[in-house]
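Hey, I'm writing a tutorial for new members on how sequence and structure tokens pair up, and I'd like a real worked example in the thread rather than a made-up one. If someone can provide the structure for the chain below, I'll link this post from the tutorial.
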Amino acid sequence: MEWVQSAAEAVTRGCSLIIPPSCATRSYSAIVETTSASVPSTVTFNIHGNLSNKPVHVWATNLNSTSDKDLFVHVNDVKPEGSGRYQFTVQPNYV
């Protein structure tokens, strides 16, 4: 997790973070779950090294919903800044 430098605030507010990099490519996935959160949190990532700075595709699943339409929904694309920094807001009880 050497490339995540600013996720501590979200983690302390009821979120957890998993980032498994792909060894074969510069791709990575960041999985943020907020099952313990009671308020929205902004998560900031600072990507560096060999990881891609291409747009980040943000997907979400609403764990409160009983509708299949709320599973793995594409909600945004975020372009990292030149420094590799990007952020987005996560809602309570989402993955």
